[in-house]
Design goal:
Length: 305
Amino acid sequence: MNTEDQEHSHLRPGGRQHNQKRFTAMAAYKTLSTPKGYLVLIILSFILGYITHSQTQTQTQTQTQIPPDVSDLSEHNKFPNKCKHPVPSNHVRQTVLDRVFNGTSPFQGFPPPHITSLLWEDWAKGWGSNAPVFEHLINQVRPRVIVEVGTFLGASATHMVGLTRKLGLDTQIICIDDFRGWPGYYDEEKSLKMVNGDSLLMFQFMQNVVKANATDSILFLPFSASTALNGLCDWGVYGDLVEVDAAHDFHSAWVDINNAYKILRPGGVLFGHDYAWEGVRYAVHSFARLNGFQVKLDGEHWILY
Ligand SMILES: C[S@@+](CC[C@H](N)C(=O)[O-])C[C@H]1O[C@@H](n2cnc3c(N)ncnc32)[C@H](O)[C@@H]1O
């Protein structure tokens, strides 16, 4: 390139940029060829390497935390498909006593003195607790074991005790309830005092069982429905009749029905309350369709056949 070329090179398209790039490259080369520059280069490569490595690691960790079959959308339908070998019906009471109450009846020494004055002599509210469906199904199935999911104050459970005794049956009824009430409970049910955040519902339920002279026929699992039903499944406790009457939103009813079905003795009947609730209805029909059942109605109750 002659002098004129050099002088006017910035007039050619890209000429000035070209010169600037050359100048920058030469300056970088000069800097890096000094010991200081060399040191900077090494530090820069180290930092760059570190950043790239930790980014790759985060990506790998995120990927390995996702189960490989997460794309299988039938996953949420997987409930235990086999429970333990069934214990005989006449061992059910002792099994529950041993597993939950350390072998001793929870009704022994009930009520504790500090609770007595806080309970109502007469408060056994329920919803459809004496409905004809109970008599129909107890006459039909003649159950040795009944599991009730959602018991509240025991109105339906104590009613069922009366019906089984009328038939001369020695039936155990296992009542499942967390006995906590529900959000808004105190606005609707101002009937009991709260003691240190406890609703006392379990004690009122127990008092109602004592009053119905049913402590030999009723035991309870004071846990969430899923925990209790999975416990029964693990212990091999099955019901000849299983009633679902806990929470009525679709997801709760769906999980309860699926878990309840696992502990239904072959030939037994699964039924429940509150067919009028959309969530319950949807869960019942979804379950029936997937498992080949017919849905029958008896008042407000649904029955699977
Ligand atoms: C409608 S009441 C049951 C009424 C009873 N079957 C009767 O007729 O007298 C519903 C009960 O289910 C219980 N419940 C709701 N969701 C539950 C859950 N996830 N686990 C345990 N209990 C639950 C509530 O505490 C409440 O006592």
